[in-house]
Each structure stands twice: as structure tokens, then as C-alpha cells.
Amino acid sequence: MDYAAVIVLQVAYGVANLALIGLGLAIIFGMMRVINLAHGEFLMLGGYTVVVATNNGVNLWLAMLVLAPVVVGLIGVIVERVLIRFLYGRMIDTLLATWGLSLFLIGLVTTIFGPTTTTTVSPPVGALHIGAFFSSGYELFLIVITLVLFALVYAVMKFTKLGLLARGTMQRADMAAALGVSTSTIYMITFGLGSAVAGLAGALLAPITGVVPTIGAAYIAKAFITVISGGAAILAGTASAAALLGFINQVVTFITGPTVGEVALLVAAIILLRLLPTGITGRFFRRSL
Fold this sequence. Notes:
The chain has helices at 2-32, 39-55, 60-82, 91-113, 137-159, 161-171, 173-178, 183-209, 216-230, 234-255, 258-275, 280-283, and strands at 127-130, 133-136. The chain is an all-alpha fold and 289 residues long. The protein has one domain (1-285): ABC transporter involved in vitamin B12 uptake, BtuC. The chain has a two-stranded antiparallel ribbon with strand order 1-2. InterPro entries: ABC_transp_permease, BCAA_transport_permease.
């Protein structure tokens, strides 16, 4: 029984990990249709924010939960103002521009911190005793905070004026502009929100994964696979795709090993998109957020 509880916790962590990595991209790509290939580097910047802040005496919780999303969110706003806003509706151009941004951020961080910078941040939550077994208490914390983060984004999008304006602008920007909404401001805030969520995810994962300038490459493929498999609904799609793919990945990893687990995740996503070309929410949960 205790062993089963440890396995369930590991599967839940795998699901939460995918959901956490993909949520920021779901906001930017799912709502704005911007293919942000620099998404992984936004997570990387969140991790570096935590490392730099804690090395300078800032409390770890403050650095992870406040400083990282604020810093990366502001970087996202700057990127949107100086680069992305000129490319809306030009998907290929946006793809190339964010790819260039990704390379620029990797080069910049490598120049400042060196190519092999690693985090000195330890998980702030100790081991969890489950009967005769031990599991990571920090992984349980990540599961909980992922649920809280989804609930917060849902509340903002569903019950606030900002969420209403954002959803309306993404669906019919021309109609929103005709009603006096500053669509440019809404785009900027939405991109900044997606970037902030990515920064928070990178900060939360830093104590587990470590931080190096190229770590974004480990995030970006899983994030896109999760978001595209989920379909148009940013929250229901990301959550359902993360649940399905994370479950398959963790179960196969437990039986065979992490390499085959990653392959199983990719194969499952290919089969899913072959059967459901518009993603899970293209067939199910169509009216979900």
C-alpha cells in the first residue's frame, strides 16, 4: 500500500511537471497564436533569477514565488513591445523571431554566467515519509502549487474584467477595438502574464533540475507537445493533455526507464494528434476555458 502511494505520487508529479511547463506557453500560443520558441529560455531566466537572488541573500520562497515571475513577466512585456507586436498574424515570422530571441538569451546568459553554471539552490522541503519509503516532499509541493496556479489563472480569466477583455480580444480583436478596448495593451498584458507564469515554472523547477543556459531545450519540446495535444482550451487542454501524457510517461518510465518513457510520451502524442487533429479539447471540453 505504501509503495502504491509512492508510485501514485510520482505519476502525479509527472502530470504536474508537464502542466507547469506548458501553462505559460498555453496562454501565449493558445490565446495569441504566437509560436514562442523562446518559451524554454523564459523558464531558464526564472531559474537564474532564483539562483542570483538567493546568492545575494534573498529568501528562497520570495525569490521563487514573487521575484522570478515579476522579473520574467517584465522581460516578456519588453519583448512584446519591441519585437512581438510587429509580428501579430505573421506566424512564420514570429517563429523565426522568437527562435532568434532564444539564441540571443542563451548567448547572453552564457556570456554573463558561463556555460556550466549550476544551481546551488536546494529543495526547500525535505523528504516525505510514506511508511517504510521516502519520497520528495518538494515534488508534493509542486503538485499542490500547480493546482493552485491553474485555479488562479482560471479565476483571472473567468471572473475578472481583464480576463473578459483578454478573451474577447483574442476572439475578435476588431470588435473589441470597435468597442473602445485598447487591444495593444491587452496583447501586451497577456504576453507578460504568460511570460510570468513561465518564469514562475522555471523558478519552481530550478531546485530539482538545476540551471544551465541551455536548459530551455529540455522544456520547450514537452511544452509544445502538451499544449498542441490539449487543443484550443488553454486550461482544460493543458490539464487534460498533461494528465494523459504525464501518466503514460511516468508509468513507462517506472517499468522500463526514463529514455523509453520519453519515447512513449512522444509516440502517445503522435497517436493522439492522429486521432484528434485539433487536440483533446477539439473533441471534448469544447466550451471549457
